[in-house]
Each structure stands twice: as C-alpha cells, then as structure tokens.
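pasting for ref
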Amino acid sequence: MTTRPDMPITRHMRWIIIAAAIAGLIGVYAMTREAGKTPPPPSGAAASAGALDKSLAAGAMRKLRIAKRRRDVTGLTFTDGDGKPVRLAAYEGKVVLLNFWATWCFPCREEMPHLAALKKAFAGRDFALVFASVDRKGYAHAKAGLEKLAGAGHTLVMDNGSKALNALGERGIPVTILIDKQGREAARVIGIANWASDEAKRVVEALLAEKAPGDNATKTEGAG
C-alpha cells in the first residue's frame, strides 16, 4: 500500500503499515533461521555411516536409549573367575554388548537365550557379548547359572558390589549397555528386551558399520 505525501494517514492505515512491518520482520527471521540449519542427510546416509538413528528405537528395541553424547566407559572395571581385574579397554575396536544380570533376576533369565542367539548371529564379526553378574554368591555360582540359561562359552565377569552398574547411574537389572568400537556408550536398554529380534540385529549392524579407532574415522559425539 502506498500513500501520497499530501494524503493524511488515518488510524486504520497506521495499523496496516505496522502489521506489514511486523510480517516482514517475521519473514526475515524465518529465512535467517532456515539458512543457518544444516541440510538433512540424504535418505539412507545415517545407516551407511553406521550412526544410530532414533528410528532404530522401535519394536523389540523400543526401550533403546541412544546417547546424546557418547562417553568413554573403558575405565569400568570388573573381575574374572580368578579375581583379576578386567577392563572394557581390552575390547577396543569391537562393538560390545554389556549385560548386567543376576541368577535371581527372573527378567534377566528370560532374556538370556535371546542374548545367546544374538551372539551366534554375529559370530566372526567385531562383536563381543559380556555378561556382568551382580550375584553375591560369587563367580562359580554365576557361571553355573549362565551356562544353564545361555549355554557354555560365554564371557562372564563379576560386578562386585554393583560398582560399575552404579557408576552408570543404574540400580536395577537387567540393564544392557551398547558400546561402540571406540569404547564409548552408544546406547542402553533398561529392562528386558528380545535381543534375538531383527530390530536388535539392526542396532548392532549400525554400530559395526562405524569406523574403528585408527581407520581415519571422524569421531562424533553420538546421535540422538
């Protein structure tokens, strides 16, 4: 709307001019904000890069909590059957599924066969399944229970006093921590899950697709 110099500006016209100015400012703000945004990646880019995507937290993995910032967990210490310390740093370069459990925990017992099936599905890959028992009756008792529930040949460590579990901010079990090849927590699941499901396998595949240390990978802070 234009006005002549000799045209008197009425109250109605003044409000129209003010409204137009406000609309213009809003438009400029919206354009500036959009210009500052990072363009979305092409379809499938997240999967090919191996980054965990929120879409993976569905179905059997609906409880999956993807870390917003991946923190190093290689300092967590456990003990083996001889009472010697075991650090997660020993698994650097592998994707680790760390499952906290106990023989007296019924939900833990229920998911044991699923975890064993997941390990079998990724045999020969850079994947490790580690069972961390919080049983107070000791390693021999936990090992007997593990073999009964999941079969023989699994890696078992003891989390005496639940120190590692507490360091992760958790109290109850089961809790499962997914650790990337750089030794950082990528995600966790609190409670029981079907680890033999296709959804669980897709989560592991996404982490396996990520670069290992020394592969000239750009370190990211995690997705989600």
